[in-house]
Amino acid sequence: MAFDQGLSHSLIEGNKQIIEQGRLLDSSISQGLFAFNPDMLFERLVKDYNTAEKIYGETFLRLITGEEAAPLKKKLPFPEFQRHLKGAIKQKILSLQQEELLDKKNAITERGLELASLVITLEELDSLKAKGLGQRKTKKRHHYGDSQNTRPYKKHDRYHDLNLKKTVKTALRRRHTTLHKEDLAVYERQDTGKIHLIYALDASGSMKGQKLSICKKAGIALAYKALEEKDNVGLLVFNSIISQAIPPTSDFSQIIKALSHIKAQAQTDIASAISKAIDLFPREDVTKHLILITDAAPTVGEDPLENTLTLAATAASLGITLSLIGIDLNEQEATFAQRLTDIGKGTLSIIKDLNALDRIVLEDYYTLNS
Predict the structure, then answer these.
(1) In order along the chain (370 residues), what is the average pLDDT of each group of 10 residues?
(2) Would you kindly state where each structural domain of the chain is located, as residue ranges?
(3) Do residues 62 and 68 make contact, with C-beta atoms less than 8 angstroms apart?
(4) How many CB atoms lie within 10 A of CB 138?
(5) Angle formed by the axes of helices 252-260 and 210-228, to 10°?
(6) DSSP per-residue letters across 175-194
(7) CATH code, 194-369
């Protein structure tokens, strides 16, 4: 990834301050805040912590103030603590400016976006290792493809592909006491090619905050492991419009950079996401799989449910399978999601524990080659 050498060096050296700055920026981005207003933040905190938490999120407030939620709420009424807090917030903003992570108007810079994405990438890769998700648990993919039918041996065939059982049977049928060249049979191996994936992430308003942050990390996990397996991964970010659309690629940094720019807003248009995925997948006869992450049924259009199901059927007719991971879906939403994945010939997973998301995303990917 083409990150600034100074940032990478600081992280490698274990600079806790800049790691914390990256976390702060990521929490801000996931809340849909791409610029800081320290005076407004302070005023909202002092006036009503609960309202401030809805706007900024608990993680952002903890990182910007250096205080956990419970003690912060207790201290806020005291003027002496308020003076301390105002100074602490301004100091955090100043340090972000000094590192060129914020510009003079307190907007997050490209350097800031890069730092945020680098920090969450490193955190997710560490998490994969800690959770034991670093290895494919399904059967190993053969470099030369999977064995299919057999045929007579030809010059330059690999002896490793020899079907010994078939060869011996042929020799016995021909009453040969030794194996002759014409007895040899080899497996015809069908080239499996690369798997082409698209990670389609719902970035509607209800996804902001922790949901979006964890979904971004799950996307990082998928991209990292799939590219490690020599597969290609694309990205779709959608709400009422398509805000990011990357066709399946082997460029990890392109995926990570796009994830760092996501802003949650507006409504959920799954139909448009499926339609765009159809355009992004290659036309050749290869494995094509779409993974949808959402916390709601589609809400955009005159008949959003039927439109979405129709497009899923179109995708299926083009060889595109579709899985959906629903975050805390209600009964009606889950019923629709099941219909969608039945049409898409994929799997449906409904989760309440966001910390399981990366595991479920990877399990869905791993089943493609089981």
Answers:
(1) 51 72 95 95 96 96 96 97 97 96 96 92 88 59 48 66 70 70 71 82 94 96 93 96 96 92 90 97 93 92 92 96 96 96 96 93 89
(2) 5-129, 146-190, 194-369
(3) yes
(4) 12
(5) 180
(6) T-SS--GGG-EEEEEEP---
(7) 3.40.50.410
